Amino acid sequence: MLIKAGVLLTGLMLISIAALPGHADVKHGRTTPKEPIDKSTLLQITGQIAGSTVNLDREALYALPPTTLVTSTVVTDGQHTFTGFLMRDLLEQLAAEGDHVTAVALNDYAVDIPMADFYDFDVIVAYRMDDQTLSRDDKGPLWIVYPRDDHEALQDIRYDYRWVWQLYQLDVQ
Amino acid sequence: MRRVGNTIFGVILPLVAVLVFAVLLTFSLMRMFEVESAMRVEAEKNMLWVLHQSEVAALRLSATAMLAELGKAGADDVSLRFDILASRVALLNDGPQRRFIEKIGFDDDLDRLSDAMVEMAPTAAHFSPGDAPRLRAALAPFSRFFGRAANAAMIAEWDDLGGRLETYRAQLRQIIAFLIGIMVAGGILALTLVLALRQTRQRNHMLRRERDFSALLISSSGEGILAVDHAGRCTLWNGAMAEMVGKPAKQAVGRALTEVAGFFDISTVRRGVAQALDGETSQQTLQPLFQQGRDAPLHVDLRFFPLRDDGVILGAIVFIYDASDRHTAQQQDAADRDRLEELVVERTRDLDSALQREKSAADLYRNFAAMVSHQFRTPLAVADSALQRLIRRGTRAAPDEVAERAGRARSAIAGLTRLVESTLDAARLDAGQLGARRVKCDLGDIAEVVSARQREATPERKIMIQYAITEHYSVLCDPTHAEQVLENLLSNAVKYAPPDTPVSVILHGNAQHASCDVHNAGAPIAEEDREHLFERNYRGASSVGIAGTGIGLFMARTLARMQGGEVTLQPFSEGVTFRMTLPRFGRE
């Protein structure tokens, strides 16, 4: 019980550090310089994939096998139905190879997610919540959603910070 | 007192310890579950970070508006930054975040900012550089709000964290106390366990000693002891048993008793065992127990008892005692008793015969007077008349006549003398004074002498002597006795023969014996008399009216037997034939 309390404190401290402004850029220093993205692009994938950079528009993302997931989240009340595609489907389609994926949000929030997460759990990139397309002035256009209610292991703050919303870039390392 | 102490230490203390142990463990577990679940739930709020991000979004929108005013950023950039800020405000208005803001008392401010966002939305959507000052002015309260809210959030979260940690510490302290209690209770339990184990070991030791002692008792018992279960299988077989039956315990234990030895298959023994198994005690005495390789059986006493434990019959126990000595003593006693009885019978017989003899003697003497008056009268009369005639004749008597008459008188006197002799002989015989002096004699001579004497006594009777063989009839005998026997037989024959019939004396013999038969043509002796003829003082039916003592034949047989001979009445002969048999000289 003491140990668990310790873990909790460490977790809180990590989040505090990550909360520093411009943290992602400064800490990693490897975020690919932003290329001009045309307005229709929703998601840009860079790093160890087939082709150096891939820009995907809404149509391309909708073409991926759609998956539905019902779960609660830490920032909302009640359960929600999320629709999107499995992260591993996307990565496999792009022949991504690496240990982790750095997910970057529109506000430059960046998090390293281990590649194993996408294979251990049905992690989806959602574009719709409760039959409403996610918009940019809410959590959209894309939100990484974990099946939190299906796995007790995911009900942990160390997974909660991997739920990147307003996602626009994935860097496979 | 000690017993009460034992109860407290042995039963109550461990029970209390177990109870305390269980209660404390339950409370500790409950506390731990509480802590665990509190950590899980409380860990999800991170409002400081949310507010910081929101502030950054507001600042960047403001900065982008400024850049747009300077022509260094486009309307799209402003729109993007506005959307990001809008998403932050939306986030703050969402469930958990909204409740936190309400808790720290910033909900009114947030509502105003949300309204401001709605007002700004058209401007941001259709942004022109001229809108920038207005936009920046509208954004001014945002930074202040987020800063103050972050401040309050920090304080609230730290208060919350501090409070939570305090709760955890209190709970952990409780748990520690519980654990100490559990340890103490566990210690007490361990102690009682050790004590109980020691006690158990001591009891086991005592039990073992008692068992060893019991086994020793059973094996040392001189009495055979065996036990059987309900199936009739032997479960116990001691050394004495093995010795008696001749089979060691190894061959007996575990096997059916009836198979161990035939003795246990005897119906009486089987019944004893069966009764004991039914709860009945019984005993049997002096049962013969044949052992392998031994001729004479042991004689044993058996006692059968049911083997009970708390009223339940587990089997039967049989005690077997070797009572052979007692049996032998009993046998000896019986034999002694038999011999004693025999002796008594013999003595009684002797006494009877002595009594009989006494009685005979008494009879003899009682009869003596009668006999004297009867037997002696005739010879006396003969002698008297002969002498009277002599006196009457006086000198006229011729010398021949004198000699003849004197001879007759003497002969009568001689007869009287013999009569007295025979009476005395009978008395001597009774007194055991009569002995035999056996010498070599000729039976023919004896027969001649006796016949001549008889002819002289009864000249009118014809007496014939026949010799079946011509050789000498030399026999071993006392001649006086032999003469007396033959005299007796001959005088009887003369006495009982019908008048004018001859009496024959026939001599014959074989290698061992010489015999002398005395035969007359008298009426056959009645069957019922034959048996008693040789008894003392017996007088048969035919002797009525004839003088006699009833002692003659008894004397004759007794005298003949004294010399190794015999006197018999020959059966199946015409008339009556008595036979005297004497051993041949050198053949006895």
Automatic annotation (TrEMBL), chain A:
Cell membrane keyword on record: no
Keywords carried by this UniProt record: Signal
Alphabetical list of InterPro entries matching this protein: OxRdtase_Mopterin-bd_dom (IPR000572), OxRdtase_Mopterin-bd_sf (IPR036374)
Domain Oxidoreductase molybdopterin-binding: 78-147
Secretion signal span: 1-24
Keyword flag Kinase: no
Protein name: Oxidoreductase molybdopterin-binding domain-containing protein
UniProtKB/TrEMBL annotation, chain B:
GO cellular component labels: membrane
GO biological process: osmosensory signaling via phosphorelay pathway
Catalytic activity: ATP + protein L-histidine = ADP + protein N-phospho-L-histidine
PROSITE patterns documented for this protein: HIS_KIN (PS50109), PAS (PS50112)
Keywords from the UniProt entry: ATP-binding, Kinase, Membrane, Nucleotide-binding, Phosphoprotein, Transferase, Transmembrane, Transmembrane helix, Two-component regulatory system
UniProt EC number: 2.7.13.3
SMART domains assigned to the protein according to its UniProt record, in alphabetical order: HATPase_c (SM00387), HisKA (SM00388), PAS (SM00091)
Domain Histidine kinase: from-to ranges: 371-586
Gene Ontology MF, one: ATP binding
Membrane-protein topology: Multi-pass membrane protein
Residue ranges constituting the PAS domain according to the UniProt record: 210-280
Compartments, as annotated in UniProt: Membrane
CDD domains: HisKA, PAS
Main location: membrane
Transmembrane segment boundaries: 6-30, 175-197
InterPro entries named among the record's database cross-references: BphY/WalK/GraS-like (IPR050351), HATPase_C_sf (IPR036890), HATPase_dom (IPR003594), His_kinase_dom (IPR005467), HisK_dim/P_dom (IPR003661), HisK_dim/P_sf (IPR036097), PAS (IPR000014), PAS-like_dom_sf (IPR035965)
The protein's name: histidine kinase
Organism of derivation: Vreelandella subglaciescola
